[in-house]
Amino acid sequence: MSQRPVPEATVGRLPLYLRALVDLAATGEATISSETLAAAAGVNSAKVRKDLSFLGSYGTRGVGYDVAYLLHQVRRELGLTQDWPVLIAGAGNLGHALSNYRGFGQRGFRVVAIVDVDPGKVGERIGDLRVGHLDDLAAAVDEHQVAIGVICTPGEAAQGVADRMVAAGLRSILNFAPAVINVGPEVSVRKVDLSTELQILAYYEQRKAALEAVASGAEAASASLSAFPAVGR
Amino acid sequence: MSQRPVPEATVGRLPLYLRALVDLAATGEATISSETLAAAAGVNSAKVRKDLSFLGSYGTRGVGYDVAYLLHQVRRELGLTQDWPVLIAGAGNLGHALSNYRGFGQRGFRVVAIVDVDPGKVGERIGDLRVGHLDDLAAAVDEHQVAIGVICTPGEAAQGVADRMVAAGLRSILNFAPAVINVGPEVSVRKVDLSTELQILAYYEQRKAALEAVASGAEAASASLSAFPAVGR
DNA sequence: CAGTGTGAACCTTTTCACAGCA
DNA sequence: TGCTGTGAAAAGGTTCACACTG
Fold it and tell me: Model-level pTM greater than 0.85?
Protein backbone atom coordinates (compact mmCIF):
# COMPACT_ATOMS: atom_id res chain seq x y z
CA MET A 1 0.00 0.00 0.00
CA SER A 2 1.16 3.50 0.64
CA GLN A 3 4.80 3.85 1.51
CA ARG A 4 5.92 6.25 4.26
CA PRO A 5 3.86 6.70 7.38
CA VAL A 6 1.18 9.35 7.15
CA PRO A 7 1.40 11.67 10.19
CA GLU A 8 -1.42 11.33 12.68
CA ALA A 9 -2.45 14.94 12.24
CA THR A 10 -2.84 14.34 8.52
CA VAL A 11 -4.91 11.19 9.02
CA GLY A 12 -7.21 13.27 11.18
CA ARG A 13 -7.81 15.68 8.33
CA LEU A 14 -8.30 13.19 5.52
CA PRO A 15 -11.99 12.69 6.37
CA LEU A 16 -12.40 16.45 6.10
CA TYR A 17 -10.94 16.49 2.63
CA LEU A 18 -13.00 13.47 1.73
CA ARG A 19 -16.22 15.22 2.64
CA ALA A 20 -15.25 18.32 0.73
CA LEU A 21 -14.38 16.22 -2.31
CA VAL A 22 -17.65 14.31 -2.20
CA ASP A 23 -19.57 17.60 -2.13
CA LEU A 24 -17.43 18.91 -4.92
CA ALA A 25 -17.82 15.88 -7.11
CA ALA A 26 -21.58 16.33 -6.80
CA THR A 27 -21.30 19.82 -8.27
CA GLY A 28 -19.49 18.40 -11.27
CA GLU A 29 -16.19 20.27 -10.87
CA ALA A 30 -13.43 18.33 -12.58
CA THR A 31 -10.39 19.81 -10.88
CA ILE A 32 -9.72 21.73 -7.69
CA SER A 33 -6.82 23.80 -6.38
CA SER A 34 -5.37 23.39 -2.92
CA GLU A 35 -6.67 26.87 -2.17
CA THR A 36 -10.27 25.97 -2.93
CA LEU A 37 -10.11 22.62 -1.22
CA ALA A 38 -8.62 24.32 1.79
CA ALA A 39 -11.54 26.73 1.97
CA ALA A 40 -14.03 23.90 1.72
CA ALA A 41 -12.30 21.96 4.47
CA GLY A 42 -11.68 24.94 6.73
CA VAL A 43 -7.89 24.76 6.76
CA ASN A 44 -5.13 26.59 4.88
CA SER A 45 -3.76 25.66 1.51
CA ALA A 46 -0.22 24.87 2.61
CA LYS A 47 -1.60 22.27 4.95
CA VAL A 48 -3.68 20.72 2.19
CA ARG A 49 -0.68 20.42 -0.11
CA LYS A 50 1.55 18.97 2.57
CA ASP A 51 -1.12 16.52 3.67
CA LEU A 52 -1.85 15.33 0.16
CA SER A 53 1.83 15.02 -0.63
CA PHE A 54 2.02 12.23 1.96
CA LEU A 55 -0.36 10.18 -0.17
CA GLY A 56 1.64 10.74 -3.34
CA SER A 57 1.98 13.30 -6.11
CA TYR A 58 -1.58 13.41 -7.27
CA GLY A 59 -1.76 17.03 -8.38
CA THR A 60 -0.86 18.77 -11.61
CA ARG A 61 1.27 21.91 -11.33
CA GLY A 62 -0.44 24.93 -12.69
CA VAL A 63 -3.79 23.15 -12.64
CA GLY A 64 -4.69 21.50 -9.36
CA TYR A 65 -6.05 18.11 -8.41
CA ASP A 66 -8.41 15.93 -10.42
CA VAL A 67 -11.45 15.66 -8.17
CA ALA A 68 -12.49 12.11 -9.04
CA TYR A 69 -8.97 10.75 -8.87
CA LEU A 70 -8.13 12.45 -5.60
CA LEU A 71 -11.43 11.30 -4.14
CA HIS A 72 -10.51 7.74 -4.98
CA GLN A 73 -7.04 8.06 -3.52
CA VAL A 74 -8.26 9.54 -0.24
CA ARG A 75 -10.91 6.84 0.05
CA ARG A 76 -8.33 4.17 -0.60
CA GLU A 77 -5.90 5.60 1.90
CA LEU A 78 -8.59 5.69 4.58
CA GLY A 79 -9.63 2.14 3.81
CA LEU A 80 -13.10 3.14 2.71
CA THR A 81 -13.20 1.06 -0.42
CA GLN A 82 -14.73 -1.61 1.75
CA ASP A 83 -17.65 -1.60 4.17
CA TRP A 84 -16.99 -1.72 7.89
CA PRO A 85 -19.43 -3.61 10.08
CA VAL A 86 -19.91 -1.83 13.41
CA LEU A 87 -21.27 -3.04 16.73
CA ILE A 88 -22.80 -0.66 19.26
CA ALA A 89 -22.79 -1.42 22.97
CA GLY A 90 -25.40 0.50 24.92
CA ALA A 91 -28.93 1.10 23.65
CA GLY A 92 -29.64 4.27 25.59
CA ASN A 93 -30.28 7.70 24.11
CA LEU A 94 -27.00 7.90 22.31
CA GLY A 95 -26.90 4.28 21.19
CA HIS A 96 -30.32 4.75 19.68
CA ALA A 97 -29.34 7.94 17.91
CA LEU A 98 -26.18 6.42 16.48
CA SER A 99 -27.99 3.31 15.32
CA ASN A 100 -30.38 5.46 13.37
CA TYR A 101 -27.75 7.91 12.14
CA ARG A 102 -27.84 7.85 8.36
CA GLY A 103 -24.42 9.43 8.07
CA PHE A 104 -22.73 6.18 9.07
CA GLY A 105 -24.33 4.12 6.35
CA GLN A 106 -23.63 6.77 3.75
CA ARG A 107 -19.95 6.57 4.58
CA GLY A 108 -19.61 2.82 4.55
CA PHE A 109 -20.18 1.99 8.20
CA ARG A 110 -22.96 -0.53 8.74
CA VAL A 111 -24.34 -0.96 12.22
CA VAL A 112 -24.87 -4.72 12.31
CA ALA A 113 -25.54 -5.30 16.00
CA ILE A 114 -26.53 -3.53 19.19
CA VAL A 115 -26.19 -4.99 22.65
CA ASP A 116 -27.17 -3.91 26.15
CA VAL A 117 -27.49 -5.45 29.60
CA ASP A 118 -30.85 -3.93 30.54
CA PRO A 119 -33.53 -6.64 30.20
CA GLY A 120 -35.95 -3.86 29.36
CA LYS A 121 -33.92 -3.03 26.27
CA VAL A 122 -32.82 -6.46 25.10
CA GLY A 123 -35.19 -7.58 22.39
CA GLU A 124 -36.25 -4.05 21.49
CA ARG A 125 -36.29 -3.20 17.78
CA ILE A 126 -34.14 -0.31 16.55
CA GLY A 127 -34.43 0.15 12.82
CA ASP A 128 -33.80 -3.24 11.27
CA LEU A 129 -32.02 -4.55 14.31
CA ARG A 130 -33.00 -6.22 17.52
CA VAL A 131 -31.05 -5.35 20.66
CA GLY A 132 -29.02 -8.34 21.79
CA HIS A 133 -27.57 -9.12 25.20
CA LEU A 134 -24.07 -8.03 26.09
CA ASP A 135 -23.24 -11.68 26.73
CA ASP A 136 -23.75 -12.33 23.02
CA LEU A 137 -21.26 -9.69 22.00
CA ALA A 138 -18.55 -12.14 20.98
CA ALA A 139 -21.02 -14.20 18.97
CA ALA A 140 -22.26 -11.10 17.17
CA VAL A 141 -18.70 -10.01 16.40
CA ASP A 142 -17.97 -13.40 14.89
CA GLU A 143 -21.20 -13.68 12.98
CA HIS A 144 -21.02 -10.25 11.37
CA GLN A 145 -17.25 -9.95 11.07
CA VAL A 146 -17.44 -6.78 13.15
CA ALA A 147 -14.29 -4.66 12.97
CA ILE A 148 -15.20 -1.63 15.06
CA GLY A 149 -16.95 -1.40 18.40
CA VAL A 150 -18.74 1.69 19.67
CA ILE A 151 -19.26 2.19 23.40
CA CYS A 152 -22.36 4.18 24.34
CA THR A 153 -22.76 3.01 27.91
CA PRO A 154 -22.58 4.99 31.14
CA GLY A 155 -19.05 5.65 32.29
CA GLU A 156 -19.03 2.93 34.93
CA ALA A 157 -19.75 0.20 32.40
CA ALA A 158 -17.26 1.32 29.77
CA GLN A 159 -14.18 -0.61 30.92
CA GLY A 160 -16.06 -3.87 31.24
CA VAL A 161 -17.54 -3.50 27.78
CA ALA A 162 -14.15 -2.60 26.34
CA ASP A 163 -12.64 -5.73 27.89
CA ARG A 164 -15.32 -7.85 26.27
CA MET A 165 -14.77 -6.19 22.93
CA VAL A 166 -11.05 -6.84 23.06
CA ALA A 167 -11.64 -10.42 24.16
CA ALA A 168 -13.96 -10.84 21.19
CA GLY A 169 -11.14 -9.75 18.91
CA LEU A 170 -12.02 -6.11 18.20
CA ARG A 171 -9.03 -3.86 17.78
CA SER A 172 -10.77 -0.56 17.07
CA ILE A 173 -13.02 1.13 19.60
CA LEU A 174 -14.89 4.42 19.53
CA ASN A 175 -15.70 5.43 23.08
CA PHE A 176 -18.54 7.84 23.85
CA ALA A 177 -18.68 6.95 27.51
CA PRO A 178 -17.27 9.60 29.86
CA ALA A 179 -14.50 7.36 31.13
CA VAL A 180 -10.93 6.46 30.27
CA ILE A 181 -10.63 2.88 29.12
CA ASN A 182 -7.46 0.84 29.28
CA VAL A 183 -6.70 -1.64 26.54
CA GLY A 184 -3.62 -3.24 25.07
CA PRO A 185 -1.38 -1.40 22.61
CA GLU A 186 -2.76 -3.39 19.69
CA VAL A 187 -6.16 -1.74 20.14
CA SER A 188 -6.89 1.72 18.75
CA VAL A 189 -9.22 3.79 20.84
CA ARG A 190 -10.74 7.11 19.97
CA LYS A 191 -12.74 9.03 22.49
CA VAL A 192 -15.59 11.45 21.95
CA ASP A 193 -16.72 13.18 25.08
CA LEU A 194 -19.70 15.44 24.66
CA SER A 195 -19.39 17.18 28.00
CA THR A 196 -15.69 17.75 27.50
CA GLU A 197 -16.36 19.74 24.38
CA LEU A 198 -18.85 21.94 26.19
CA GLN A 199 -16.38 22.44 29.02
CA ILE A 200 -13.73 23.61 26.61
CA LEU A 201 -16.18 26.07 25.10
CA ALA A 202 -17.08 27.25 28.59
CA TYR A 203 -13.43 28.03 29.21
CA TYR A 204 -13.11 30.29 26.19
CA GLU A 205 -16.54 31.80 26.75
CA GLN A 206 -15.52 32.71 30.26
CA ARG A 207 -12.33 34.34 29.06
CA LYS A 208 -14.23 36.38 26.55
CA ALA A 209 -16.62 37.56 29.23
CA ALA A 210 -13.69 38.47 31.44
CA LEU A 211 -11.99 40.41 28.66
CA GLU A 212 -15.14 42.30 27.88
CA ALA A 213 -15.55 43.26 31.48
CA VAL A 214 -12.11 44.84 31.27
CA ALA A 215 -12.84 46.47 27.94
CA SER A 216 -16.07 48.06 29.14
CA GLY A 217 -14.15 49.34 32.13
CA ALA A 218 -11.76 52.30 32.07
CA GLU A 219 -8.94 51.71 29.61
CA ALA A 220 -9.57 50.56 26.07
CA ALA A 221 -8.61 46.94 25.73
CA SER A 222 -6.27 47.09 22.82
CA ALA A 223 -5.52 43.41 22.90
CA SER A 224 -6.97 41.61 19.94
CA LEU A 225 -9.91 39.36 20.51
CA SER A 226 -8.53 37.00 17.94
CA ALA A 227 -6.32 35.54 20.61
CA PHE A 228 -9.18 33.06 20.87
CA PRO A 229 -8.78 30.14 18.56
CA ALA A 230 -11.92 29.51 16.56
CA VAL A 231 -11.33 25.81 16.63
CA GLY A 232 -9.45 24.12 19.39
CA ARG A 233 -8.82 20.83 17.76
CA MET B 1 -8.32 35.86 36.92
CA SER B 2 -5.56 33.51 35.97
CA GLN B 3 -2.46 35.14 34.61
CA ARG B 4 -0.53 33.62 31.70
CA PRO B 5 -2.39 31.98 28.85
CA VAL B 6 -3.09 28.32 29.33
CA PRO B 7 -1.99 26.35 26.22
CA GLU B 8 -4.81 24.96 24.13
CA ALA B 9 -3.62 21.40 24.59
CA THR B 10 -3.80 21.87 28.35
CA VAL B 11 -7.30 23.32 28.22
CA GLY B 12 -8.31 20.24 26.29
CA ARG B 13 -7.12 18.02 29.12
CA LEU B 14 -8.56 19.93 32.05
CA PRO B 15 -11.98 18.29 31.66
CA LEU B 16 -10.21 14.94 31.86
CA TYR B 17 -8.57 15.86 35.13
CA LEU B 18 -11.83 17.27 36.37
CA ARG B 19 -13.63 14.02 35.79
CA ALA B 20 -10.89 12.04 37.49
CA LEU B 21 -10.97 14.40 40.47
CA VAL B 22 -14.72 14.18 40.81
CA ASP B 23 -14.50 10.38 40.89
CA LEU B 24 -11.67 10.60 43.36
CA ALA B 25 -13.42 13.01 45.66
CA ALA B 26 -16.30 10.53 45.79
CA THR B 27 -13.97 7.85 47.13
CA GLY B 28 -12.90 10.16 49.93
CA GLU B 29 -9.21 10.41 49.06
CA ALA B 30 -7.80 13.64 50.46
CA THR B 31 -4.68 14.01 48.37
CA ILE B 32 -3.44 12.65 45.08
CA SER B 33 -0.08 12.45 43.35
CA SER B 34 0.50 13.43 39.76
CA GLU B 35 1.27 9.79 39.09
CA THR B 36 -2.12 8.57 40.29
CA LEU B 37 -4.04 11.38 38.67
CA ALA B 38 -2.23 10.64 35.44
CA ALA B 39 -3.31 7.01 35.54
CA ALA B 40 -6.91 8.02 36.18
CA ALA B 41 -6.88 10.47 33.31
CA GLY B 42 -5.00 8.25 30.90
CA VAL B 43 -1.96 10.51 30.40
CA ASN B 44 1.54 10.56 31.90
CA SER B 45 2.56 12.25 35.10
CA ALA B 46 4.92 14.81 33.59
CA LYS B 47 2.04 16.11 31.53
CA VAL B 48 -0.19 16.37 34.55
CA ARG B 49 2.39 18.37 36.47
CA LYS B 50 3.09 20.70 33.55
CA ASP B 51 -0.58 21.22 32.90
CA LEU B 52 -1.42 21.96 36.51
CA SER B 53 1.53 24.28 36.83
CA PHE B 54 -0.16 26.59 34.33
CA LEU B 55 -3.00 27.06 36.79
CA GLY B 56 -0.66 27.87 39.65
CA SER B 57 1.37 26.04 42.29
CA TYR B 58 -1.37 24.04 43.88
CA GLY B 59 0.62 20.99 44.90
CA THR B 60 2.70 20.17 47.95
CA ARG B 61 6.13 18.71 47.34
CA GLY B 62 6.55 15.27 48.79
CA VAL B 63 2.79 14.94 49.21
CA GLY B 64 0.76 15.67 46.11
CA TYR B 65 -2.33 17.72 45.43
CA ASP B 66 -5.24 18.31 47.77
CA VAL B 67 -8.16 16.76 45.92
CA ALA B 68 -10.87 19.18 47.04
CA TYR B 69 -8.74 22.25 46.47
CA LEU B 70 -7.49 21.14 43.07
CA LEU B 71 -11.03 20.22 42.07
CA HIS B 72 -12.13 23.73 42.89
CA GLN B 73 -9.26 25.32 40.99
CA VAL B 74 -9.85 23.27 37.86
CA ARG B 75 -13.55 24.05 38.00
CA ARG B 76 -12.82 27.73 38.39
CA GLU B 77 -10.33 27.76 35.56
CA LEU B 78 -12.82 26.08 33.24
CA GLY B 79 -15.55 28.49 34.24
CA LEU B 80 -17.71 25.79 35.76
CA THR B 81 -18.55 27.60 38.95
CA GLN B 82 -21.55 28.90 37.07
CA ASP B 83 -24.26 27.17 35.06
CA TRP B 84 -24.25 27.47 31.28
CA PRO B 85 -27.58 27.61 29.48
CA VAL B 86 -27.41 25.73 26.20
CA LEU B 87 -29.61 25.85 23.12
CA ILE B 88 -29.87 22.93 20.72
CA ALA B 89 -30.75 23.43 17.07
CA GLY B 90 -32.07 20.31 15.40
CA ALA B 91 -34.48 17.92 17.07
CA GLY B 92 -33.57 14.80 15.11
CA ASN B 93 -32.00 11.66 16.52
CA LEU B 94 -28.97 13.37 17.90
CA GLY B 95 -30.76 16.49 19.13
CA HIS B 96 -33.13 14.26 21.04
CA ALA B 97 -30.34 12.21 22.54
CA LEU B 98 -28.39 15.27 23.64
CA SER B 99 -31.45 16.92 25.13
CA ASN B 100 -32.00 13.89 27.30
CA TYR B 101 -28.33 13.35 28.08
CA ARG B 102 -27.94 13.49 31.84
CA GLY B 103 -24.23 14.09 31.65
CA PHE B 104 -24.75 17.69 30.56
CA GLY B 105 -26.89 18.64 33.54
CA GLN B 106 -24.51 16.91 35.93
CA ARG B 107 -21.70 19.06 34.65
CA GLY B 108 -23.47 22.39 34.78
CA PHE B 109 -24.86 22.61 31.26
CA ARG B 110 -28.61 23.13 31.17
CA VAL B 111 -30.42 22.61 27.89
CA VAL B 112 -32.94 25.44 28.01
CA ALA B 113 -34.29 25.42 24.46
CA ILE B 114 -34.52 23.26 21.35
CA VAL B 115 -35.48 24.54 17.93
CA ASP B 116 -36.12 22.97 14.56
CA VAL B 117 -37.67 23.93 11.23
CA ASP B 118 -39.69 20.78 10.65
CA PRO B 119 -43.37 21.55 11.42
CA GLY B 120 -43.72 17.93 12.45
CA LYS B 121 -41.21 18.48 15.23
CA VAL B 122 -42.04 22.00 16.39
CA GLY B 123 -44.29 21.72 19.41
CA GLU B 124 -43.10 18.24 20.32
CA ARG B 125 -42.18 17.67 23.96
CA ILE B 126 -38.67 16.50 24.82
CA GLY B 127 -38.20 16.09 28.54
CA ASP B 128 -39.35 19.33 30.13
CA LEU B 129 -38.99 21.27 26.92
CA ARG B 130 -41.12 21.99 23.92
CA VAL B 131 -39.43 22.23 20.55
CA GLY B 132 -39.56 25.80 19.27
CA HIS B 133 -39.22 27.10 15.74
CA LEU B 134 -35.84 28.09 14.38
CA ASP B 135 -37.26 31.57 13.79
CA ASP B 136 -37.57 31.97 17.54
CA LEU B 137 -33.92 31.19 18.14
CA ALA B 138 -32.92 34.77 18.91
CA ALA B 139 -35.84 35.21 21.29
CA ALA B 140 -34.92 32.01 23.12
CA VAL B 141 -31.30 33.09 23.39
CA ASP B 142 -32.38 36.37 24.92
CA GLU B 143 -34.95 34.90 27.23
CA HIS B 144 -32.70 32.22 28.68
CA GLN B 145 -29.40 34.05 28.46
CA VAL B 146 -28.06 31.24 26.32
CA ALA B 147 -24.28 31.20 26.02
CA ILE B 148 -23.62 28.11 23.98
CA GLY B 149 -25.34 26.82 20.86
CA VAL B 150 -25.27 23.21 19.71
CA ILE B 151 -25.90 22.36 16.07
CA CYS B 152 -27.46 18.94 15.45
CA THR B 153 -28.89 19.57 12.00
CA PRO B 154 -28.05 17.90 8.70
CA GLY B 155 -24.91 19.28 7.10
CA GLU B 156 -26.73 21.43 4.57
CA ALA B 157 -28.52 23.41 7.28
CA ALA B 158 -25.52 23.96 9.53
CA GLN B 159 -24.18 27.22 8.08
CA GLY B 160 -27.58 28.89 8.12
CA VAL B 161 -28.17 27.89 11.72
CA ALA B 162 -24.69 29.07 12.69
CA ASP B 163 -25.39 32.44 11.08
CA ARG B 164 -28.56 32.79 13.11
CA MET B 165 -26.76 31.83 16.28
CA VAL B 166 -24.07 34.41 15.72
CA ALA B 167 -26.68 37.04 14.82
CA ALA B 168 -28.45 36.22 18.08
CA GLY B 169 -25.23 36.95 19.94
CA LEU B 170 -23.87 33.48 20.62
CA ARG B 171 -20.11 33.25 20.56
CA SER B 172 -19.63 29.58 21.37
CA ILE B 173 -20.86 26.83 19.10
CA LEU B 174 -20.56 23.08 19.28
CA ASN B 175 -21.12 21.64 15.82
CA PHE B 176 -22.23 18.04 15.33
CA ALA B 177 -23.29 18.57 11.73
CA PRO B 178 -20.95 17.06 9.14
CA ALA B 179 -20.06 20.40 7.62
CA VAL B 180 -17.51 23.15 8.06
CA ILE B 181 -19.10 26.35 9.30
CA ASN B 182 -17.65 29.80 8.82
CA VAL B 183 -18.04 32.38 11.54
CA GLY B 184 -16.21 35.48 12.66
CA PRO B 185 -13.04 35.27 14.75
CA GLU B 186 -14.92 36.28 17.90
CA VAL B 187 -16.87 33.01 17.79
CA SER B 188 -15.39 29.77 19.14
CA VAL B 189 -16.42 26.67 17.28
CA ARG B 190 -15.73 23.11 18.22
CA LYS B 191 -16.61 20.31 15.91
CA VAL B 192 -17.56 16.74 16.71
CA ASP B 193 -17.92 14.56 13.68
CA LEU B 194 -19.07 11.05 14.38
CA SER B 195 -18.26 9.65 10.95
CA THR B 196 -14.83 11.24 10.97
CA GLU B 197 -13.91 9.33 14.07
CA LEU B 198 -14.95 6.05 12.50
CA GLN B 199 -13.00 6.88 9.37
CA ILE B 200 -9.87 7.46 11.38
CA LEU B 201 -10.35 4.13 13.09
CA ALA B 202 -10.87 2.52 9.70
CA TYR B 203 -7.52 3.87 8.59
CA TYR B 204 -5.62 2.27 11.45
CA GLU B 205 -7.70 -0.90 11.25
CA GLN B 206 -6.81 -1.22 7.61
CA ARG B 207 -3.11 -0.80 8.33
CA LYS B 208 -3.24 -3.46 11.00
CA ALA B 209 -4.91 -5.85 8.59
CA ALA B 210 -2.27 -5.08 5.96
CA LEU B 211 0.55 -5.65 8.42
CA GLU B 212 -0.90 -8.94 9.53
CA ALA B 213 -1.18 -10.11 5.96
CA VAL B 214 2.53 -9.51 5.66
CA ALA B 215 3.30 -11.17 8.99
CA SER B 216 1.37 -14.31 8.13
CA GLY B 217 3.23 -14.42 4.86
CA ALA B 218 6.81 -15.61 4.42
CA GLU B 219 9.18 -13.42 6.41
CA ALA B 220 8.56 -12.56 10.04
CA ALA B 221 7.37 -8.99 10.34
CA SER B 222 9.91 -7.62 12.72
CA ALA B 223 8.36 -4.15 12.71
CA SER B 224 6.66 -3.38 15.98
CA LEU B 225 2.88 -3.23 16.05
CA SER B 226 3.11 -0.42 18.52
CA ALA B 227 3.64 1.92 15.60
CA PHE B 228 -0.14 2.35 15.94
CA PRO B 229 -1.08 5.00 18.40
CA ALA B 230 -3.72 3.82 20.81
CA VAL B 231 -5.34 7.22 20.79
CA GLY B 232 -5.12 9.55 17.87
CA ARG B 233 -6.15 12.73 19.51
C1' DC C 1 12.70 11.21 50.93
C1' DA C 2 8.72 11.45 48.05
C1' DG C 3 6.83 14.14 44.80
C1' DT C 4 6.25 18.92 42.78
C1' DG C 5 7.72 22.44 39.57
C1' DT C 6 10.39 23.52 35.64
C1' DG C 7 14.35 24.42 32.50
C1' DA C 8 16.17 21.99 28.54
C1' DA C 9 16.01 18.50 24.93
C1' DC C 10 13.25 16.43 21.78
C1' DC C 11 9.61 15.55 18.64
C1' DT C 12 5.53 16.84 15.90
C1' DT C 13 2.98 20.05 13.43
C1' DT C 14 2.33 24.30 11.09
C1' DT C 15 3.71 27.92 8.23
C1' DC C 16 6.71 30.12 4.94
C1' DA C 17 8.63 30.73 0.65
C1' DC C 18 10.11 29.34 -3.60
C1' DA C 19 12.07 26.04 -7.06
C1' DG C 20 10.16 23.36 -10.60
C1' DC C 21 6.87 21.75 -13.74
C1' DA C 22 2.57 21.46 -16.83
C1' DT D 1 1.93 31.79 -15.95
C1' DG D 2 -0.29 29.35 -12.05
C1' DC D 3 -0.20 26.05 -8.83
C1' DT D 4 2.00 21.94 -6.88
C1' DG D 5 5.50 19.82 -3.99
C1' DT D 6 8.81 20.44 -0.52
C1' DG D 7 12.95 21.95 2.00
C1' DA D 8 13.73 25.09 5.86
C1' DA D 9 12.18 27.95 9.68
C1' DA D 10 9.01 28.66 13.36
C1' DA D 11 5.74 27.34 16.66
C1' DG D 12 3.69 24.24 19.70
C1' DG D 13 3.58 20.23 22.49
C1' DT D 14 5.74 16.32 25.03
C1' DT D 15 9.12 14.08 27.67
C1' DC D 16 13.23 14.04 30.44
C1' DA D 17 15.65 14.71 34.43
C1' DC D 18 16.68 16.91 38.46
C1' DA D 19 16.91 20.87 41.79
C1' DC D 20 14.14 21.97 45.42
C1' DT D 21 10.99 21.70 49.29
C1' DG D 22 7.50 20.27 52.79
Answer: yes
